């Protein structure tokens, strides 16, 4: 039962990592489940799963893309907050850029609700922009460092064995 | 001509222990885990997830390479790894760096050198 669960946990890893190491990891599970404890191995497997998907597989790009898309969607609301008025949004509402525009252009909306929606849109947009910029910046730095290491590795292929 | 190995340094504890475990002989993953536990007297236990994450990185960087199977009767799931020439160089440089750190620490903490006390 625990072996099947651990196998399933390994199956959830990114395909490249799974093809390369899942067999060996399952073999280690068979060897060390008694000595190391099943709980410790499962905890290690869960950490590994998160690490492989979030840090190694490049799925951060998908997250950054979604965040970027959300920023774009909220751009209409932000623009309206800065330059427009609810009435103007009603006119421009023909080309809907986001669901919130339709909400803001509703003439029957109470003023407090209108302010709350504006504040939410503004805060969410700002946060997503910051997260996207920081993510891209951090990954650029890491990528540059790794490329530098690979170049040095290739240059050192003639090192003594 | 010596290569600049500074981009690899300092090594993380897991990487240092894995390279140290492979310095003596070629080992499979479970063998590396056992050797790391032995070297640290059981104080540092490496899980398979951490081990293979580091091994993947070390293989990509060219510090570790796959070694041929030691006997035909070995379990086919069991793969052996060995230190490359560059890996040995990085490990030596890291050990020299750590020796410097220990020397400084002894100086500042006024801990007697074990060689002089015997």
Overview of the structural elements:
- The complex is a heterodimer of chains A (161) and B (118).
- Chain A is an all-alpha fold.
- Chain A has two domains: 2-56; 60-155.
- Helix content of chain A is 83%, strand content 0%.
- Chain A is built from seven helices and no strands.
- Chain A has helices at 2-11, 15-36, 38-56, 60-83, 86-92, 99-104, 111-155.
- In chain A, helix 1 runs parallel beside helix 3 and helix 4 (60-83) runs antiparallel to helix 7 (111-155).
- The longest helix of chain A has 45 residues, at 111-155.
- Chain A is elongated.
- Chain B is mostly helical and 118 residues long.
- Chain B has one domain (10-117): Winged helix-like DNA-binding domain superfamily/Winged helix DNA-binding domain (Arc Repressor Mutant, subunit A).
- Chain B contains five helices and three strands.
- Chain B has helices at residues 13-24, 29-39, 48-61, 85-109, 114-117, and strands at 27-28, 64-67, 80-83.
- In chain B, strands 1-3-2 form a three-stranded antiparallel β-sheet.
- The mean pLDDT of chain B is 88.
- The chains are: A mainly alpha (161), B mainly alpha (118).
- Chain A binds chain B through residues 17, 20-21, 23-29, 31-32, 36, 40-41, 43-45, 47-49, 51-52, 56, 145, 148-150, 152-157, 159-161, and chain B through 3-5, 7-8, 28-30, 33, 45, 47-50, 52-53, 55-56, 60-63, 75, 77-79, 84-86, 89.
């Amino acid at each position: 039962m625990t072996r099947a669960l651990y196998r399933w946990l390994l199956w959830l890893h990114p395909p490249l990592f799974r093809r390369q190491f899942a067999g060996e990891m399952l073999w280690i599970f068979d060897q060390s489940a008694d000595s190391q404890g099943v709980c410790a191995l499962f905890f290690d497997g869960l950490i590994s799963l998160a690490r492989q998907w979030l840090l190694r597989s490049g799925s951060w790009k998908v997250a950054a893309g979604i965040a970027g898309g959300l920023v774009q969607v909220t751009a209409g609301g932000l623009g309206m907050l800065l330059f427009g008025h609810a009435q103007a949004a009603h006119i421009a509402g023909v080309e809907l850029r986001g669901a919130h525009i339709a909400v803001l252009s509703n003439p029957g909306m109470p003023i407090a609700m209108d302010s709350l929606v504006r504040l939410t849109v503004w805060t969410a947009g700002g946060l997503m922009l910051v997260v996207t910029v920081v993510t891209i910046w951090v990954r650029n730095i890491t990528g540059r460092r790794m490329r530098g290491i690979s170049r040095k590795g290739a240059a050192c292929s003639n090192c003594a064995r | 001509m010596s290569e600049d190995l500074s981009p690899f340094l300092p090594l993380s504890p897991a990487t240092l222990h894995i390279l140290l475990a492979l310095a003596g002989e070629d080992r499979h993953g479970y063998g590396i885990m056992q050797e790391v536990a032995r070297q640290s007297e059981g104080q540092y236990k490496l899980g398979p997830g951490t081990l293979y994450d580091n091994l993947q990185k070390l293989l990509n960087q060219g510090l570790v390479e796959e070694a041929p199977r030691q006997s035909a009767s070995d379990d086919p799931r069991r793969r052996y790894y060995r230190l490359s020439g560059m890996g040995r160089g990085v490990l030596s440089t890291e050990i020299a760096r750590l020796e410097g750190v220990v020397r400084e620490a002894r100086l500042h903490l006024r801990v007697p050198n074990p060689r002089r006390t015997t």
